[in-house]
Amino acid sequence: MSQWVRGPVCGVNNCQSRLYHWSDGMQICQYGHVVEGHIEINDDHDENPVTTRRLRIPRQNESQLGRGSGTGASDRAYGANARLVYLKCLQALLHFQASRFALMFKCDESEFKPALKVYWLRLIQAYYGTNDETKTGRIPGALDTVSIIYLSLIQRGKYPVYVSDVLQGIKHSTIPFLKCIHLIPKAYREILPSYYIKSLEPYKLPLCGEMYESILTNAKHIGAECHLDVINLSFYYPLVFKTLSRHLLLPNSPSVSFICFCLLDMLSPQLSLTPKTKTSSFPELQIVSFIMMAVKASFLQSVPFSLENYLDILTRYESDSEFPLAGNSSDQSDLLDWSVTKTDNYCQWVYENLVPERKDEELTAMERRLRQIFSLDETFVDTSLRPPPRGSPNSDKYPSSNVGKYIEAIASASSIDGNDTKAQAFNALDARLISYLSIHFGVSKKLLQKNYNDLEKTIKKILPSRSSSNSPALQPLGKSETPFN
């Protein structure tokens, strides 16, 4: 009979035995449990058993090791300290944005900075105040800082600052908005919690009315100091002319501007910025609907250029201005500021216009089979609206760097004839204006269409004799008539 040896607890089925003996090279406890992994070869039972002790060294958990070696997580601020750090970061961003506003709109910072400081304090009080009636329950972000700068500038009434220009500055990174975390001091970035980053650096552009909603919301929080009960119509005259001449490329932009001014003077819309103002009633969005109506009224008269040709050239201009590399008028550093959507669209344009098609013999068997299933005949591809490739004879006809040549090309076309063709062209004009201006002014197509329809109904009520169910919006005026007499 073999001799029992004391060892560690067996542990098999919660066995508490510490006595073992060896049998056929296996270690067996006193209750018959075989300890796996303990196999002894050439066991000599004649020798005296030697008891050994297992050295048990406690090992630290890997997660504990990671927490002990990391120093960044322990330096982060939390709770009230994190909120204070975030407000300091947001204030630093506000300082950079205000300086960019001053450079972009050619204004003096000393004139609007005092009002901006007051608005900033009111904003913090509204978001983090002790009064439950004014506390909003969310944290301010980069969009809120842009909106209070806009309110401080428009409150002065000296500078023609428009939301559309602010949105263009955000798109081209002239105003820090998307990629602005590097502007924050490093000492603040290292201790700022990560859950504040999404508010400090948004992940998308405010192109669906977020800018207007933020301006109205913050105007309500700030108080009556930034409220404008009545805004003079002349404040938006530069916006009307710039939109018609620079963005819509109308050769007759002075006359169309006059039509728009007459519409504004006749209907006298209420342009105000108060807590009761809705997003659809924002002053600039009302002006946009008047611009669209004036453009349509001008084409209902006998204009000296073709509407179809105008839409075609406007499409070409938008493509060249969106991707200025096609006209060799872009700085290479601008590529870093492109959004993901703009980069994808440009790559798609390059693939469709510049990348040569592969011949059938160069295709794989799978690609040839796909071409047999899905025909890619050029007769089904509409290339009339594509920008001309570089190096072609007409490539310098519509350079993106010279807007005047686009306007000359529009003015040189003859006017269209035929009621059916004109009706289709006007439908295309409505859709095109809504699509383009909704992107330019950062608002949804649905809201812009609603404002336009409301204005059209108002004009039909005022001019019942000149509106008909068969006409797009207004009947053409006679040659001897003034636009609104």
From TrEMBL:
Gene Ontology molecular function: RNA polymerase I core promoter sequence-specific DNA binding; zinc ion binding
GO cellular component, one term: RNA polymerase I core factor complex
Ranges for domain Rrn7/TAF1B C-terminal cyclin: 205-354
Annotated stretches, region: Disordered: 463-485
Subcellular location: Nucleus, Nucleolus
One example of a Gene Ontology biological process annotation: nucleolar large rRNA transcription by RNA polymerase I
Ranges of residues in domain RRN7-type: 4-37
Family: Belongs to the RRN7/TAF1B family.
Name of the protein: Piso0_001087 protein
Native species: Pichia sorbitophila (strain ATCC MYA-4447 / BCRC 22081 / CBS 7064 / NBRC 10061 / NRRL Y-12695)
